Amino acid sequence: MQTYGETIKDQTIVEKVLRSLTPKFDHVVVAIEESKNLSTFTFIELMGSLEAHESRINRSMERNEEKAFQFGVQSSNNANIQCYHCKKFGHGKADCWSKNQRANFAAENEASENNGKGENKHFMTNIPSNQKTAEVWFIDSDCSNHMTGLKPVFKEFNEGEKLKVELENGKELQVEGKGTVGIETHHGNRILTNVQYVPDIGYNLLSVGQLMESGYSILFDDGACLIKNKQTERVLVKVKMTQSKMFPLEVLNVENFALTATATNTTKNNSKLWYLRYGHLNIKGLSLLNQRDMVIGLSKITAINICEGCVYGKQTRKSFPIGKAWRASKCLELIHADL
């Protein structure tokens, strides 16, 4: 403001400084506003008052620390201590809950930085393993990706991705690839995409985060896990909590289902057939079903020849003309008569 030639009064500066002070100076601000005339109170006087108050606080803190050292106890007067991490009063940086909470995710951030080294780490809960089975998938909120140790369940598989997953106890397991798995439940058939193949894992895991990214809504309530369609709010799967506080989703023979889905995909890869199955659904609608993996075995939709039935069925009668083709311009040029 001074650069543009405007003169700033001391009163304006004093008022602005008083408004911007931290809460520990609140009683000083109140005292100055009540006892001083701000129109005559200069900026130099204000700075002197604030410096005197701050030195008084520092002397008080030094005395408390000396007493604590003499008696071998920790000072309990933390009201004036400001944390250098979250900038709040009442605790120090070492006791900052925000700093300690973020420290829990330090390992995950370090894993994301290792992408350039050809190694990536994902975290998952250490669930006790009894025997590999494809009929049980555990819903896990601590798991980064869907995982399984059974390679035959994949209906599509890609060995290009080589990662590592880290267990809760620090043990690392190798990821040998990822792919698509089709599962059949009591509530219908579902497709799981980007499922990681971990040969040494003894159980199947469904990642809550990955389910949410796929368009599902997850609700844990009243001893059960509900998986809903995010758009329609319809419950797709309900998994009850066991006595060990886990949520196992039981599926119906995932291996046979995966093989059936693969056979369907190879033998019935016919866009015209899917067009007829869905009652002459348009190409845009079929492509949307394919993109969202909403139909088991539906491959990429290609161009379909013009359907003669749809052409005739969707035709409409030509509308009547809005006006007459011509109008009479002379007498007796147009005559209406009853025969």
How many extended strands?
A: 13
Count of helices? 10
Q: Please give the share of residues in helix.
A: 25-40%
Largest sheet: 4 strands, mixed
Order of helices and strands: HHHHHEEEEEEEEEHEEEEHHHH
How much is the radius of gyration in Å? 37 Å
What are the low-pLDDT stretches, counting only 5+ consecutive residues below 50?
A: 71-76, 100-131, 255-269
In which order are the strands of the major sheet placed?
3-8-7-4
Give the overall form.
flat
Distance between the termini: 98 Å
Mean pLDDT metric:
73
Structural class: alpha/beta
Strand content: 15-25%
Any key phrases for this structure?
single chain; 339 residues; alpha/beta; three-stranded mixed sheet; 10 helices; 13 strands; zinc ion binding; nucleic acid binding; Znf_CCHC_sf; PolX-like_BBD; GAG-pre-integrase_dom
Structural notes for this entry:
This is Gag-pol polyprotein, identical. The chain has about 350 residues and is of the alpha/beta class. Among the domains are: about 60 residues, no CATH class; about 150 residues, no CATH class. The protein contains ten helices and 13 strands. It is flat, with a radius of gyration of 37 Å.
